[in-house]
Amino acid sequence: MFLEQLLNGLQLGLVYALIALGYTMVYGIIKLINFAHGDVFMVGAYLGVLGYTVWKLPFPVAVVVAMAGAAVLGVTIERLAYRPLRVRNAPRIAALITAIGVSLFLEYFSSLRFVFGPNYRVVDRPFKDVRWQLGPLGISNIQVIVLLTVIALLLLLQFVVYRTKIGKAMRAVSFDMDAARLMGIDVDRVISFTFAIGSALAAAAGILYVMAYPQIYPFMGIMPGLKAFTAAVLGGIGNIPGAVLGALIMGMAEVFTVGYVTSDYRDAVAFSILILVLLVRPAGLLGKAGPEKV
Amino acid sequence: MSERTRSVLVAVVLVAIYVALTTLRQAGAIDEYWSQVMDLSLIITISAVGLSLIYGFTGQFSLGHAAFYGIGAYVAGYVTKTLGGSLPLYVLALAAGAAFAAAVAFLIGLPILRLRSDYLGIATLGFGIIVKVVMDNTDKFLPAMGGPRGMLGIPQVTTFGWIYWAAVATIVLARNLVHSSPGRAAIAVREDEIAADIMGIDTTRYKTLMFVLGAGLAGLAGGLYAHRYPFLHPTSFDFLKSLDVLLIVVLGGLGSLTGTVVTAIGWVFLLEWLRNVLPQDFLDWRGVIYALVLIVLMILRPQGLLGGRELVLVPRREPAKGGSSHAAA
């Protein structure tokens, strides 16, 4: 029982981690809480489901299509909504409110009947749910797929950020945007690229989430989005390993509360942990509490 | 015009507006539906002025304002539902709701107001979600609260007069506070907390003061709401409702009371107007239009509609520094 809960927590935590990465990377570079990210997750989930149910694509192709679609969406949002503000040096709160606006736009636009429709929809899984019993531990094929996919994507991201030129540019821009620009880095391109990767990861998370909890609706992104964002803050926002750590804590806290206490307080426990951690470490678990700017 | 004649003039205008609106309502020129919208817009105004004190004037980014609004509504509603809705009890209920919200703000504010900008936002967001979860489970310890089924049976004793004069009192209070010594200290904290600290301002004290007052106003608004609309439900006080007031305060222009008041009223009416003006087939578009208005407004006027300026509503005694591009986001 305990091991199974641990596994469930790991599964949920890893899905949160994929979403949290998008928050943390964008925040690391342009200091923006991209509230629309949870809705990119939702759109990604819809695209994936449409891919293998309506368009009859093979499952892996559907995943790739959804990730690509979400990446285009993320880049478009950045171009149309955030860049105009950045160019004009608007106060950060304006960008935040715009992000909220984009989030609401995606939710309500998706609710329109000719888009995804306003209702909950139960979706088919792309394959049968199989459970294996390994001694005391029951594990399903879906859990295996979630674990493997997330780990593969994390390794890929690690490779991109630390072993490629664009990754180096991302790190430089997040360290000091102006200095990076002076060094000849095309900052706008790096920001677009960051949005693209973050959104693609969110779409992957969306599909994995739907496989685990097979229903879908236009407002499904709000809670996972908030939790993933909270996870990013918990781990120290702007910090990639921190986002994964924070997400695992959020996932575990949620699953263990449901498993051992009561599902009524599911959402409260994770946020209580967040507040407690922030009181002790105001910059998150792995965040560095830099000197105060005067 | 001297300060004194101006005050008298403002008072006369306020009474005239009140008399006019009441007459129109009694004559039926403003129907029940629009009366409800009008009342809601004023209640939201009270809550938004509270957030304006916290965020607009003190620069403390709070994403959990609806929690205090909800606490006020539930506490006030509980008092009159269990004890009865006579006038003294109603006043007691409003006071209890506001006081309870303020007390909770004090307890949560003491530790979390040490956090800065986004981190404070996230902590208050988390607090808001915790409060929502508690509201969902209130029936476990106080069955009268209704939990996820919502709370029914609160005496509907809030009249337009109560709401109108509460809103006026709130605005006057906020206006005087902002021009007072604590208000200026709060503005100094918003502009630069460290500099304010160095100048000898007890920043913790003023941050807490404004946070508690702002939350108390939200609690008062909640109490009025509970006795005006017959049904309280936890979803009326969730994260999205916190965003609503945040949008109002930012759209109005941080550090502008006039902006907050005008935007609060305008925003509520805009949404209802959209509900009426859109053809049936396009009702679904309301949320989309709402979102687009928000995005376009922010891109065109990132500093908010009034950007720290004040109109006659809140006359200035001396030129106060407007705008708050330095306010932490």
TrEMBL record, chain A:
Superkingdom of this protein's organism: Bacteria
Principal subcellular localization: membrane
Keyword Transmembrane: yes
CDD domains linked to this entry: TM_PBP1_LivH_like
Topological relation to the membrane, as annotated: Multi-pass membrane protein
GO cellular component term, pick one: plasma membrane
GO biological process: D-alanine transmembrane transport; L-alanine transport; L-isoleucine import across plasma membrane
Localization in the cell: Cell membrane
Keyword match Transport: yes
Keywords recorded for this protein, A-Z: Amino-acid transport, Cell inner membrane, Cell membrane, Membrane, Transmembrane, Transmembrane helix, Transport
Parts of the chain that traverse the membrane: 12-30, 61-81, 93-116, 136-161, 190-210, 244-262, 268-287
Pfam (any one): BPD_transp_2
GO molecular function, one term: L-valine transmembrane transporter activity
Family stated for the protein in its record: Belongs to the binding-protein-dependent transport system permease family. LivHM subfamily.
Full protein name: Branched-chain amino acid ABC transporter permease
Species: Caldinitratiruptor microaerophilus
